[in-house]
């Protein structure tokens, strides 16, 4: 599932490609992926511009010149591609938004969605999300206070979107590895130094992941050399049995609360 770095990469690249472009057509092939009738979506979108693309947690918000918004959550298996009739993936597209000859394909929206909402509706939809991990308001004191009130394991704490928003399976493991802490450690049992290094690791891992384009390897458009560059940078995620990059011990895979979790049993404690 795309997490904060993947969605931030999408936001930046989509802004470069589509900002201020006029929507010329809309095709809906799966009505369950949207929240209004296809005819209504078309009437609201055609001739509108995308004025801005913002991100909140794992969501993208396409702001329209009409004053409405498209709220996107890709969920598991969802991705996007910018192409045309001659250049697009041989996959089922749930929604296609056209900008003249350029098309934005939404693929794999079986669990995900693209909803047309007002500003108030978007705010309500996202109201239960925790702070942004890289947000300026989340300094170390605020992080320490939030973490100290949690009694669960680090893994389940980090993927809880009400604790912090945007972190999922991949980056929770990467952050724990960077901090040298086991993902099953209890959040409220960490000492001050461990909390500090965890906070610094979170900031560092997410910043680096954005810099390298996230871990999902599906390119956004032909010639896209940015998306997925962090996949080769992962220290533990999806590296079961491979040698730890710190101590050469084999990386362990385990299920924690039904979530696959990767760590080094030797140099994380």
Please characterize this protein's 3D structure.
With 269 residues, the protein is an alpha+beta fold. The protein has 2 domains: 4-125, N-terminal domain of MutM-like DNA repair proteins (Alpha-Beta Barrel); 140-263, Helicase, Ruva Protein, domain 3 (Orthogonal Bundle). The chain has 7 helices and 10 strands. The chain has helices spanning 4-18, 38-45, 119-125, 140-148, 154-158, 169-179, 192-211; strands spanning 25-28, 50-56, 59-64, 69-73, 79-83, 93-99, 102-107, 113-117, 252-256, 259-263. Helix 6 packs across helix 7. The radius of gyration is 20 Å and the shape is globular. The two termini are 27 Å apart.
Number of separate structural domains:
2
Q: If you average the pLDDT, what whole number results?
A: 96
> In percent, how much strand structure appears in the residues?
15-25%
User: Within the largest sheet, what's the order of strands?
Assistant: 1-6-7-5
Category from helices, strands and their pairing:
alpha+beta
CATH class division of the largest domain = Mainly Alpha
What is the number of E strands?
Answer: 10
Distance between the termini: 27 Å
Rounded to the nearest angstrom, the radius of gyration is 20 Å
Summed up, the helix count is 7
- Quick one: overall form? globular
Element pattern in H and E: HEHEEEEEEEHHHHHEE
